[in-house]
Amino acid sequence: xxxxxxxxxxxxxxxxxxxxxxxxxxxxxxxxxxxxxxxxxxxxxxxxxxxxxxxxxxxxxxxxxxxxxxxx
Length: 72
Description:
This protein has helices spanning 2-13, 34-46, 64-71. The protein is an all-alpha fold. The chain has a single domain (2-14, 26-71), classed as Orthogonal Bundle (Non-ribosomal Peptide Synthetase Peptidyl Carrier Protein, Chain A), CATH 1.10.1200. Helix 1 (2-13) crosses helix 2 (34-46). The mean pLDDT is 94.
């Protein structure tokens, strides 16, 4: 799941392949913003993972690893 999340974030953000790793701070590094989070959650829903954006604080979804943990 982690690799799929990284792939989705890379696609959404336009980041270079390999730039995003499990511990990358997505907000601090300017990779995701609030609109990017919404896009991410929509893409995760397409994979069968239903998360409500309003239920999470920014620090709970700040890295791909944290997002993967929520999905599992």
